[in-house]
Amino acid sequence: MTANEIAVIGGIDSHTDFHQLGIIDTVGRHLATESFETTPRGYQRLLEWLCSHGEVLAVGMEGTGSYGAEIARFLRGNGIPLIEVDRPDRRARRANGKSDPVDAYAAATAVLSGRAKGTPKSRDGIVEAIRALRIVRKSAVKGRTQAINQIRTLIISAPSEVRDKLRGLRLKELIDTLARSRPTGDPADPAFTIKTVLKRLARRYQMLDEEVRDASAQIGPLVTQAAPKLVALPGIGPETVGQLLITAGDNPERLRSEASFAQLCAASPVPASSDRTNRHRLNRGGDRQANAALYTIVLVRMKYDQRTQEYVARRTAEGLAKRDIIRCLKRFVAREVYRHLPHLQITREQLTTAT
Predict the structure, then answer these.
(1) Phi and psi dihedrals of 291, rounded to 5?
(2) Contacts of 331 (CB under 8 A, 6+ apart)
(3) How far apart (Å, rounded) are the C-alpha atoms in residues 298 and 324?
């Protein structure tokens, strides 16, 4: 039997500078393993070496959203079926050891056995642009919060001559006053040093606040373009839509049903019944950021949406606890969101045209 008559499965253990590729046949025999540089030339060599062993049925890979993002795009662009592989559990790792070839073969074996069958996110459309913008916005919000907390802490412990002038000022007035201040005095004087530090923190706050506004101004139109029907739903804003789009990815068709989307968002019910007790509990797995987005939507609807308020009143009268009501509402929201996800992928060309 020639190499061209052999069907093979690849497994990739992705890293920063090198990717380890392992190849097995359809009965699980280890055929070969090799490492390749994470460069365009290395990706081409990896593809050629992989195809030289036979017909490629699929390639399993760890880290398709991090170290392996670019090689995943390259293989997908060359028509290689790609399967996302979870990291092996600790028990299997203790039994089989740990090395790059071992992990590469394990990824291929996971595909062959059917344990790994998830389709990775494509990361080549408008949702990837939204994800990048939300990263910078989130870090700016975190830095801005840290800056104002430090300002307030310093004011509390500052000398009276500093604290009394700033007492009672609202946030914007406080930041503007500190940013415009011109401290003078002896650097060895604590009052002068605190005034200087407060001015620097205020300017940092202003800079980060501008970053947040700029990122929000960019995210809004992209989110509306990507999912106009989703933005129109009650209680859903650009931030929550952006997170839910990121969770689904640029290719939401990889999610086979609304139940799979709910499972991904940790909104699926988990049985917690025993004897005469028949109940479900909160799901503590899945994408926690997506779960937080669903939680935010539920809270907004509980306050402003009449349909949700009527549901809460009815289930409360039935004796259901508030946390269980919220769990049910998150499941309903996940179902509604899935139905309005953009199932047609927006390509890079469309994104470039829009921007």
Answers:
(1) -65, -40
(2) 262, 267, 268, 269
(3) 12
